[in-house]
Specification:
The protein is mainly α. It contains five helices and two strands, in the order αβαααβα. The chain has a two-stranded antiparallel sheet with strand order 1-2.
Length: 154
Amino acid sequence: MFFRHNFDKLIYPIVAVVVLLIVSYRPKYSLRSDMPSTFFLSSDKNTGQKKSVDERIAWAYWESAQMEVQWRYPHGHPLPVEPPPEFRVNAQALGPAASDPATRTMYWHRLQQIWYSPDTWKSEYEFELGWAGDPLTNTGQWLRDHADRIFTLH
């Protein structure tokens, strides 16, 4: 049974604000600033100079992933099979080996391998009200993003 009281006019807005705050406090994911060790695999047969050039190339591709790729393909979204045009490095600064298609493809495949690893991402919780602009569309997107976790039996 539902009884009306004078303080109901205060309770309902407070409950609505609390629900709004709970729904708006979300994690924001971004790639870690430090390159994962599995992204750059150094081999023992490399000399010191060769190793440093290879490591600089790996860092350049990691920075490209941080600056360009993570915003186009956010956390939880799959990466395409082929590297997008944004995933590139400055060949003038690093040499012609850096822009070689085989090198670019190799680092793209390494990025695909570590993309879903929790160690690759950092999360920071913040209030975000962007979902309120079009709540139906954003709710549908949230359901699509979490459908596997929701409907998969463990």
